């Protein structure tokens, strides 16, 4: 077994999990299959690029197939990786399930599973604190018991983390399970939070576990299966999911998309390019018999889930997962809240975000302010070689990058670039202050932002610039003001650095030569 990480962005990663039956790319969702009701052709999984599925070993054991345990790959007609759940979900739904933890481990070994789950005790959403504490302790006790009874070493076992909405319990559970060295860790009880759209609690739950679990191991989130949430869950560090939602939704005539769920009966056209949708329209699918309709919706729903997972992986490889979150958050106000909550964890997200990316990033306004690159730039700026200059020249950092190549102000920058008396600092509505020394570094030179920036940020960005310039303790500041943002920065400099020290030159009215002369005259009077 191995888990190899190929690309990272935020806490999200593209990886490869190898089992004894094959390998598959993460982030991945195991579609949960009902062994007693199989409607999908094995060819479908191949076509859709689904390299691993999941089934419930408890239901398998209890059902008609349980008497004679056969290889689960044969039972499901699936020769790639198969994961088996333990029946813990049934405990959550119906209470104790009358099967012993050791029994279920032995059974999973017998049916030759590739990825197994020990029989943990889910905390659930409504548990009282004492109950939550007990589920954590009991799961740890069962993990020890299960580990002792394992006889095969070619199965990847998941170590479940419980605790529910009690974050301290989640953390304690994650610490205890980490000590027990499982190849995969799994976080339980998120389903009800997702159904009730309590994404704020969900974010905190995942973070509580993620911060203490070993970072080199994959993290599985039980019961997550809606594409709308995948980008957020992946960005928080979840690598694996399992769900039967695709099938349950199909049965109810519900059509999954990465922006939300639609009702087939209310649709006129399909916008999805999957093989199921391109050849049909919603009326045809609706009028097909119930069996065919269910099958077609199952197929589309799976395509929708896997298309979104592929999209996420591409965004991670390009270093643009934040851009995808920004887009997806606009699909629903609750997702906006989810992203908002994630911002509070930016310092943690920043740690695993690469410092240099293969592509530039986009500055889309206020929503880009807490992305790791923006936070990191602020730290870089504070640590940058602050030249305590006699004269600070502030030039507009506009759309052209690097800023010193902006044709309108290039000649000014070139005239003073190596003048030891003068420090050049650009002011940008995306980044705030950018000393010329940082102008060519990532991500400043690679970022694309709006020409005029985000006007709602003008005030705070202008303040940032003025504070930075003030920290250089200048004898004099000359600002070449351009546009509305230039006026904001000038006003902040006048108030923060002082009227006697600040000179404002109008970049739009004055010709570059006149600006240069004016600066030269002032520089020559400095010692
Ligand atoms: Zn489709």
CATH class of the largest domain: Alpha Beta
CATH-assigned fold name of the largest domain: TIM Barrel
Number of helices: 22
CA-CA gap between termini:
69 Å
* Mean pLDDT over the full residue set: 92
The portion of residues assigned to helices is 40-55%
Count the beta strands: 20
Class derived from helix and strand content: alpha/beta
Residue stretches low in confidence (pLDDT < 50, at least 5 long) are: none
Q: List the domain count as a whole number.
A: 2
Shape: elongated
The CATH architecture term of the largest domain is Alpha-Beta Barrel
The radius of gyration computed from the alpha-carbon positions, rounded to a whole number of angstroms, is 29 Å
Give an account of the 3D structure:
- The protein is an alpha/beta fold.
- It has two domains: 2-348, Queuine tRNA-ribosyltransferase-like (TIM Barrel, Alpha-Beta Barrel), CATH 3.20.20; 372-524, Uracil-DNA glycosylase-like (Rossmann fold, 3-Layer(aba) Sandwich).
- The chain contains 22 helices and 20 strands.
- The strands form five sheets. Strands 4-5-6-7-8-9-10-11 form an eight-stranded parallel β-barrel, surrounded by five helices. Strands 17-16-15-19-20 form a five-stranded mixed β-sheet, with helices on both faces.
- The radius of gyration is 29 Å and the shape is elongated.
- The model has no long low-confidence stretch (mean pLDDT 92).
- Bound molecules: zinc ion.
- Zinc ion is lined by residues 272, 274, 276-277, 300, 303.
């Amino acid at each position: 077994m191995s888990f190899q990480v190929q690309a990272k962005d935020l806490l999200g990663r593209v990886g490869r999990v190898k089992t004894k039956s094959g390998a598959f790319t993460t982030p991945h969702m195991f579609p949960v299959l009902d062994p007693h009701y199989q409607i999908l052709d094995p060819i479908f999984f191949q076509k859709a690029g689904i390299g691993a599925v999941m089934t419930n070993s408890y239901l398998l054991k209890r059902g008609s197939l349980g008497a004679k345990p056969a290889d689960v790959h044969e039972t499901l007609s699936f020769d790639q990786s198969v994961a088996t759940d333990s029946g813990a979900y049934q405990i959550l739904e119906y209470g104790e399930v009358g099967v012993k933890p050791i029994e279920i481990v032995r059974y999973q070994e017998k049916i030759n599973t590739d990825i197994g789950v020990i029989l943990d005790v889910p905390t659930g959403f409504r548990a009282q604190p004492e109950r939550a504490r007990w589920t954590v302790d009991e799961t740890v006790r069962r993990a020890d018991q299960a580990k002792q009874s394992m006889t095969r070493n070619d199965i990847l076992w998941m170590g479940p983390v419980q605790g529910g909405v009690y974050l301290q319990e989640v953390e304690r559970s994650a610490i205890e399970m980490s000590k027990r060295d499982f190849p995969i860790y799994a976080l339980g009880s998120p389903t009800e939070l997702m159904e009730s759209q309590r994404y704020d609690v969900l974010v905190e739950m995942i973070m509580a576990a993620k911060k203490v679990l070993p970072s080199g191991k994959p993290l599985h989130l039980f019961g997550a299966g809606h594409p709308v949430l995948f980008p957020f869950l992946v960005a928080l560090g979840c690598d694996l999911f399992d769900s039967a939602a695709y099938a349950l939704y199909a049965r109810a005539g519900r059509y999954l998309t990465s922006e939300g769920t639609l009702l087939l009966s209310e649709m006129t056209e399909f916008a999805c390019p999957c093989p199921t949708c391109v050849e049909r329209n919603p009326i045809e699918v609706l009028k097909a018999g119930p069996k065919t309709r269910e099958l077609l919706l199952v197929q589309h729903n799976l395509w929708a889930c896997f298309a979104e997972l592929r999209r996420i992986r591409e965004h991670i490889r390009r270093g643009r997962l934040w851009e995808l979150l920004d887009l997806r958050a606009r699909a629903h106000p609750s997702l906006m809240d989810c992203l908002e909550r994630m911002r509070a964890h930016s310092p943690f997200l920043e740690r695993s975000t690469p410092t240099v990316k293969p592509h530039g990033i986009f500055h889309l306004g206020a929503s880009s302010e807490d992305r790791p690159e923006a936070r990191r730039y602020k730290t870089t700026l504070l640590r940058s070689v602050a030249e305590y200059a006699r004269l600070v020249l502030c030039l507009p950092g506009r759309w052209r990058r690097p800023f010193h190549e902006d044709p309108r102000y290039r000649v000014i920058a070139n005239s003073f670039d190596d003048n030891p008396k003068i420090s050049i600092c650009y002011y940008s509505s995306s980044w705030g202050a950018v000393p010329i020394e940082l102008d060519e570094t990532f991500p400043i030179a690679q970022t694309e932002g709006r020409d005029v920036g985000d006007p709602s940020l003008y005030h705070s960005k202008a303040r940032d610039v003025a504070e930075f310039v003030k920290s250089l303790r200048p004898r004099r500041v000359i600002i070449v003001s351009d546009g509305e943002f230039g006026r904001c920065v000038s006003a902040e400099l006048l108030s923060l650095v002082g009227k006697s020290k600040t000179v404002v030159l109008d970049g739009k009215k004055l010709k570059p030569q006149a600006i240069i002369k004016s600066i030269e005259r002032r520089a020559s009077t400095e010692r």
